[in-house]
Amino acid sequence: MSSLKGKTVIITGASSGIGEETARLLASQGAHIVIGARRIERLESLASEIRTGGGSVTYQRLDVTELRQMQDIIQLAQNHFGQVDAIVNNAGVMPLSPLEALKIDEWNRMIDVNIRGVLHGIAAGLPVMKKQGFGQFVNIASIGAYEVSPTAAVYSATKYAVRAITDGLRQETAGQNIRVTLISPGVTESELPDSITHKETIDFMKEYRSIALPAAAIARSIAYAMEQPAEVDVNEMVIRPLV
Ligand code: NDP
Questions:
Q1: Does residue 241 fall inside a structural domain?
Q2: Where does the record place the Ketoreductase domain (predicted)?
Q3: Is residue 45 part of a domain?
Q4: Nearest residue by C-alpha to atom 23 in ligand 1
Q5: Annotated catalytic, 155?
Q6: What is the per-residue pLDDT across 146-202, written as a single tens digit (0 to 9) for each?
Q7: CATH code of the domain covering residue 68
Q8: ipTM score of complex
Q9: Domains in the chain, number
Q10: Is pLDDT of 1 > 80?
Q11: Residue 80 is part of which domain span?
């Protein structure tokens, strides 16, 4: 029997890509899944698919840039399933462009979703986990958290920040029975490049992303970090396509 059976896992950004596949996988292993994103109709159809397959799931519209909404989805998880075993801070956006294109609104959106969204997950989840006396944060960064490339300066900055915040959280929660995991995917099939508006970058991405891993590969790494025995804290995983 999977050690995920009966655990309650909240997944942000579960309406597509990595979040969606993670919800499917963890539900198939018997976890209670709580999914959030802005596209409620996507969540509805994923929830219905999971329930048809015998899984346990609930969902709520979620904009991670609003702390209140993050607190509400955690409350939903507690109301439905009694506790919160893990939060996967997965929601993210990646409108890449060169700095000189001055796409300031897009820079701000990346900062809001990728950094503030993760911080809101921590702000809403940490008090609950401390009170319960257990929990796990799984924060999704990127290989962009380790290296910068042209057009990815701001995106990488947000992912470096996620990496720094995650390691700080790990250090500060030492001794509190709260596990902290950073998952850094390489290029993965998803809708992530759809937010790119810079024409040359869109063209470049088509070629660059041809080696993308299936999102299910990242979902498996998330499941791996969660299903370890309680005393095992998987701190960091980088998953790249084999080239
Ligand atoms: P997708 O675009 O397929 O998924 C992103 C998810 O984030 C969607 O469900 C979207 O849902 C959600 N989201 C965006 N903005 C918000 C918001 N304000 N509030 C709540 N949810 C939001 O891409 P991926 O699955 O690839 O992305 C998942 C994570 O993986 C991201 O953090 C990304 O940076 C990271 N990553 C992805 C890589 C890749 O190559 N795919 C590589 C490295 C890291 P909705 O629009 O419905 O709100």
A1: no
A2: 7-188
A3: yes
A4: 192
A5: yes
A6: 999 999 999 999 999 999 999 999 999 999 999 999 999 999 999 999 999 999 999
A7: 3.40.50.720
A8: 0.99
A9: 1
A10: no
A11: 8-233
